[in-house]
Amino acid sequence: MIYLFLAPDEFLLKQRLGRLKQAMGDAEMASLNLTELDGARTNAADILYHAGTMPFLAERRLVVTRGYLSNLDSRLGTARTPNKTAQAEALQILTGLADQSGSSDLVFIEEKLDKRRAIWKGKGDIAGVEQLSKDGLLTIEELNTPDGRQLPGWVARTARQEGIPIEGRAVQMLATFVGPDLRRLSMEIEKLRTYANGRPITAADVQLLVSDTSEALIWDLTDAIGQCDGRKAMRSLYALRRNDANPFYLLTMITRQYRILIKVKEAMVRAPGNEYDIASQVGERPFPVKKAMAQSRNYPIVQLEAILDRLLTLDFAMKTGADPDTELDILVAELTAES
What Cα–Cα distance (Å) separates residue 312 from each residue in 80, 182, 196, 318, 322? Predict the structure, then answer.
């Protein structure tokens, strides 16, 4: 079989390659029948040679090449200035793939391919990977990291495949807390399975054992704002957006952090202590209290109250038609402006 894995999430890719390696049988023999090629340093003849080599004391071989097709694609040139050497190699690899048969699984791993170019669409009578896929000669699999809408489904499927009972609310909380870090999500699911010890994983379990990545990023954002570090604050804001955080959720979380800062600052004045002492006073967990104790030194109480007023104004603007992302960008720019 020939596989093309597109835009692979590293965790999903490792799982997929793991299944192909398992299908090779005995692990010791499999290692003798695995060839991995650097796409920038190999060529069509080398790939086809390895793919056509008979397996050694096993039924199948596995040949994996990373970035070869996209590297070749970039060398092809344009219609006005074609790279004839690269075009000849493209025809060689595409022709070779169409004729490929034998005892090897050949895997191409590519971040992206231009679907307008010869590698994808073919050239003349030579089929590109799109046509090879339609003809059943090549399997294209997109192993993208799930987005925010797809993530709860991924969590639920993973738990089901592992035979782990989990409540729907716990699924949603896991996806929200951890975000699209599939490796960490998998580890958290396993940790929760051990803790639940056979019963369904609940939302309370997630709340107890799993830290909220979005909350940590919000603290990064408020920390940068307190330091008037606009560049760092914008990076934190965009990291939250990459986690598919809803703008209204972001505003709610930012507001919550500043309220914690006010409570902690006032508590530290009344009765100084460590994060556990202050946490018991303000009714928050020690982790956010410890962060707030450090950050509150950057703010006079009057400034914190003024920021809360600004957040209230922003909430009204966002709910009455203003573009939420733009308003949040403006907010961060204002709060990090040098005084």
Answer: 58, 35, 41, 10, 14
